[in-house]
Specification:
Blueprint: H1 14-36, E1 39-41, E2 47-50, E3 55-62, E4 71-75, E5 82-87, E6 90-92, E7 104-107, E8 115-120, E9 129-136, E10 141-151, E11 158-165, E12 168-178, E13 183-187, E14 193-194, E15 198-203, E16 209-217, E17 224-231, E18 236-243, H2 254-296, E19 314-316, E20 322-325, E21 345-346, E22 355-361, E23 368-374, E24 391-397, E25 400-403, E26 409-410, E27 419-425, E28 430-435, E29 440-446, E30 453-458, E31 471-473
Parallel strand pairs: 2-10
Antiparallel strand pairs: 1-3, 3-8, 4-5, 4-9, 5-6, 7-8, 9-10, 11-12, 12-16, 13-14, 13-17, 15-16, 17-18, 19-20, 20-31, 21-30, 22-27, 22-31, 23-24, 23-30, 24-25, 25-26, 27-28, 28-29
Length: 486
């Protein structure tokens, strides 16, 4: 906006000049507000992300301006539950959703030009869907909608012959680990589609999908077919083929029928024999794991909680054997040893050699972390749980038992542990975890240790953020070698 400022002449009165000044002030105010207006723009097409990979969610301001001093927020359906939040010139994690903890990074190399991008690591099926990127300055705010389409390529189809049906041979194709729901088809040698007798796409426990499609082959029809399973999002497929010999088809000759039956029995008996061998091997492994656990109990030690390291929201018992997450933050001195962001606490005892074992009662808690860490780990700010950062920890979160590696390692648990045993062999470089409830082995970290290691405890919250029951360090019996907890 341009213009001349009105001036007084000798014959001009104050009342006649006043409207001009009012108009000028209003025009300047409108110009100031207009200059602060902006729009937020994201990609005009869905962002495709592979399972276990990374997704980049870019947004930029128009016209170009710096976003260093703005609030930048990526969220799903609720504004207060942030996928990632940047405010006051730095990343904020207080409002971040638990499922995105440790998986997001704001790329700010071009933030002075209003261009940023959010990186999400270790993509999961639950990351699929719509996101909003929100920019707010002192006088204005705008947002843009982005869509992430998660895609996962499943296993190669496994084709099996499952006996006779309707004068032919029933052949079934199975494949698992797909996201979203895949498409499955039978084709002949020329690539022409063949009708299937049954088709089932069903969800798995981990949120992925499995496909099962069947066809009946006759002696007169195509005896060599292929099964393909594809995901439209990636426009990729996996394919397997099978050729059925004539001798498998029903014949008038009795010896041909007998031979076919023998071959089918072999096809059935071999998997059964393999399964029996697997069961025997599994039972042997379980027995060896229980023996290792029993030997570890010989090295049981008394462990207590160090109140000087406890986060202000944690409540410790007088005997320093129990810890739970409280409702309010306690007024405690912010000494260098105390955790100020992550609500965790260390054991008082430090170990720089030898073998040590202790047990912790977790009960029916829905969230906890246990293990050991270096005494020198950072106590301030966000804590990254990985061996690279000096933590050897397993835990329960989002209903899954995991070892805190990078990326995390899911732990198959058949019996829910109400007690967990931790065994540290400092010289061998092993930290092993045991399910005391059934004596099974959960996980073992193998590393090279230096310096002092201390027990690590994170009591967590229940689902919904409510206070959970305490973690309880079990007492050491008079003669080690039995269960530590009554």
């Amino acid at each position: 906006m341009t213009g001349k400022v009105p001036s007084f002449s000798p014959g001009t009165t104050v009342s006649s000049a006043l409207p001009g000044y009012v108009a000028l002030c209003l025009a300047l105010q409108v110009h100031s507000l207009a200059s602060a207006k902006f729009t937020v723009t994201g990609p005009d097409h869905p962002i495709t992300a592979s399972l276990g990979g990374e997704a980049f969610l870019p947004c930029h301001l128009s016209p170009r301006m710096s976003a260093e001093n703005m609030e930048l927020r990526w969220f799903r359906s609720q504004f207060s539950a942030a996928v990632h939040l940047y405010r006051d010139g730095q990343d904020q994690y207080g409002e971040q959703m638990l499922e995105y903890r440790g998986r997001t990074e704001l790329l700010k190399d071009d933030i002075t030009n209003g261009r940023v991008s959010l990186r999400i690591r270790s993509i999961r099926p639950s990351d699929d869907g719509r996101y909003k990127c929100f920019f707010q300055s002192n006088v204005s705010y705008e947002d843009a909608i982005l869509e992430v389409q998660v895609a996962g390529l499943g296993s190669a189809p496994a084709i099996s012959v499952e006996g006779h049906q309707d004068g032919g041979i029933r052949v079934v194709c199975r494949s698992a680990g797909w996201y979203p729901e895949p498409e499955a088809q039978w084709r002949d040698l020329q690539g022409q589609l063949l009708p299937s007798t049954s088709e089932k796409i069903s969800p798995e426990a981990n949120g992925l999908f499995q496909a099962e499609i069947a066809i009946v082959l006759t002696e007169e029809s195509n005896q060599k077919v292929s099964c393909s399973v594809r995901t439209p999002r990636l426009n990729q497929e996996r394919e397997s083929a099978i050729s059925i010999a004539e001798l498998f088809f029903p014949r008038v000759s009795p010896w041909m029928v007998a031979l076919g039956v023998i071959l089918i029995l072999l096809a059935v008996l071999l998997p059964v024999a393999s399964y029996c061998f697997w069961r025997q091997h599994r039972a042997k492994d379980k027995l060896q794991a229980e023996l290792r656990w029993r030997r570890a109990q010989i090295y049981a030690v008394d462990v207590t909680l160090d109140p000087d390291t406890a986060h202000p929201k944690l409540i410790l018992s007088e005997d320093r054997k129990r810890v739970r997450h409280g409702d309010t933050r306690q007024d405690l001195p912010d000494n260098p040893e105390r955790f100020d962001y992550c609500p965790c606490v260390l054991g008082t005892e430090g170990f720089a050699g030898g073998r040590r074992y202790w047990e912790v009662e977790v009960g029916d808690k829905t969230r906890w972390d246990l293990g050991v860490c270096r005494e020198s780990v950072s106590r301030k700010g966000l804590v990254t749980l990985s061996p690279e950062d000096g933590h050897w920890v397993v835990g329960l979160w989002d209903g899954e038992y995991k070892a805190c590696t990078y990326p995390s390692t899911p732990l198959p648990v058949s019996v829910r542990p109400s007690r967990v045993g931790i065994f540290l062999d400092y010289v061998a470089g092993d930290v092993s975890f045991y399910n005391v409830t059934d004596g099974s082995h959960l996980f073992t970290f193998t590393d090279t240790f230096s310096g002092t290691l201390r027990p690590y405890f994170y009591p967590g919250l229940n689902a919904g953020g409510t206070n959970a029951a305490p973690l309880i360090i079990c007492p050491v019996p008079a003669q080690a070698g039995g269960n530590l907890c009554p």
